[in-house]
Write a structure and sequence with these properties.
Blueprint: H1 55-59, H2 75-92, H3 99-108, H4 118-128, H5 137-145, H6 149-152, H7 156-165
Helix pairs in contact: 2-3, 2-5, 3-7
């Protein structure tokens, strides 16, 4: 290892030089038990994988003043359900979540509307109940399935326009 000039070296000391290791390690390959050969599996109840999904929870606070709840709705459940929908939208585009994904989710379920249609309120009350609880995974997957990928592929402006013209067209009834 090199030393600064101010460090005294005895003239009779042997100066070390670089030397290769005696054994060259084997080349590393990704062959661990958890590695997926065919990529991320897709199918029922597998969710929508994407990068940096936890970032969506960092964006939720941006909507604190805009989200309007009816009596009986829990803000944590609403946020958890809308984050799940936002993550589906982000995965459609193959990227991390952004603010527009959350805006789309809140708009689709009428959370920016001070007087949402009664049928939409009834629909979302049953869908969002308990969404923040970890043991409600299947229910959250059901909630996410209520918003079609074709709807989530629209721009936030198109979704807002569609909500104004037909609020129930953005989500589908999970039982119907």
């Amino acid at each position: 290892m090199a030393a600064p000039r101010h460090v005294r070296v005895h003239p009779l000391d042997e100066v070390r030089a670089y030397a290769s290791p005696e054994v060259t390690p084997r080349r590393w390959v990704a062959a661990r038990p958890g590695d997926l050969d065919a990529g991320q599996p897709i199918g029922a109840l597998r969710g929508h994988p994407g990068p940096d999904q936890g970032y969506a929870y960092g964006l939720v606070h941006l909507f604190d003043e805009r989200v309007l709840l009816v009596e009986g709705e829990d803000r944590r459940d609403v946020d958890a359900g809308c984050v799940a929908v936002a993550l589906k939208r982000a995965s459609i585009f193959g990227r991390a979540p952004v603010v527009h994904d959350l805006e789309t989710a809140y708009t689709a379920f009428g959370y920016f509307d001070d007087q949402p249609p009664a049928e939409l309120v009834t629909r979302r009350e049953s869908l969002f109940e308990g969404a923040a609880e970890a043991h409600h995974y299947n229910e959250v997957r059901r909630l996410v399935a209520c918003v079609a990928s074709e709807v989530l592929a629209l721009t936030p402006a198109e979704i807002a326009q569609r909500y104004r013209s037909d609020p129930l067209s953005l989500t589908r009834d999970p039982d119907g």
